[in-house]
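[INFO] parsing input record for Integrase catalytic domain-containing protein
[DEBUG] input buffer:
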Amino acid sequence: MDEQQRTAAALHRYAMIDNLVGVDLACGEKSALLEELATAHGISVSTIKRYLRYYEESGFDGLLPKTRSDAGASRAIPPEALEMAFRLRRELPSRSTPTIIRMLEQEREEWRGNIRRSTLDDHFRRAGLTRRALRREQKVRRKFGKVRRNLLWEADICIPQLWVRDDQGQKHQAVVVAAIDDSTRRIVHAECFISQETWVVETTLKKAVTKHGAPAALYIDNGAQFVAKQIREACASLGIRFLRAKIRDAAGKGKIERWFRTMQESFVPEMHALSTLPTLLELNRYFWAWVEEHYHQVVHSEIFDTPLNKWNSDSTPLRMVDPVTLEGAFLLSVERTVSNTSLITLFGREFLVDDRLAGTRVEVRYHPRDRAQVQIWQKGKFIGVAAPYEVPGNSPKLIKRDNAEDEPDPTGLNYLQQLDQSRRQKLRRKVKALSKQGTQQDHTLFTEAGLLRLLEKYLHPLSPQEKEWAYATWKQAGGLDYGTSESVLKRFIAAHGRDRHLSYYLEAVLRANNPLAGKGR
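[DEBUG] output buffer:
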């Protein structure tokens, strides 16, 4: 392109932004004008913004098309790489050019850094292998963004064409729940489920907050899963502003909607290329690998950086939430009166509480999906955990008598002692079983499975919800020393016993391991 052609191109670009130069418009007015200009000239809003930014930074010279820095140099793609690129595009027409380049670079070390996207796109156009030529492309939606991380998260549910098999071989459709940071475009957490109930949203938000702290605001869809009372109250408890999208306003959730489209175009086709139907665990393993190793590593066209670099370069402090507070935020609460036999009723079941609470009013906090135990609170103070009351098989049956004088002689049996003996026997069997599996060496980092074994060794068998809490603690720490963890757990048990809520033991382990905790933020 000669100088005359460059000047003509710059004049054409200036004509596109003339109505925006030197004009102070409200955000809504400017957005409307940008959309109008983009439609009139047949280009994207981001292109109009880019031309305006060039003019504001460098004047008219900023609108001149840049000359190629590699003019005169060979820009050829190795024939073998080009042939493989054509095969990859024909094999999966929805496969994007950046994905194909990354696949080629993974295949051959000598191809890394030598394949330009623009050059490969030129070859695709000449060969008639553009995605537009092979299939129709959906319209892209864009929206403004926040200036700092964790000011706003967008969350939504997507139902892609992904299927998984269960242990019985039955086929289930997977759904994806994801939350994206508005400023950096980082996926704070995303996960595949086979349910659309409220708990999948809760799980996603809890894991996101555990890893990246609490956001200032959460912008969510109007689906029943997101606007449930449990989610609203959890946000209020954690100091998160709860924002709901307008009905039928998909563009309002532009960033998460655009990310779902990226997922549909890049990740979903790769899953379809697999020869076997995955389990849910396998699907999530591939999914998280794609998010961390592909999406977070690719330069985003709107922020001109990778989501991971953008997040890490932002020095805004993260508002971390301790596991006890986070778990408590998602618990439901009801009040109950303790009977004279120290029992309360919930879910149609009886739970045994401390004898000292008999006849008093207590607050019961519970998770709707974990009915193995509930928390007992009184006047804002945590009292303890209550488990379902079950009569042992060797307990004497109660016989209704009309005459109080026919009371039998005392048996000398004590129910709490029986329960304690049964619990100790189970614990001894558990410790014996674990000892056969081998133990960790002191002062070595261990996995989340190691943490579960340590807790069950010194406390009790963990429920599914308790395993989730333990995993969150291990994830937050980034590394736990076995010797330190075992030592502090023994001391904590000696001082406070084994009957406190699991979160207290996890907090003690986390604090003791603080020097080992990975920063990861």
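[INFO] The longest strand covers residues 370-378.
[INFO] shutting down worker
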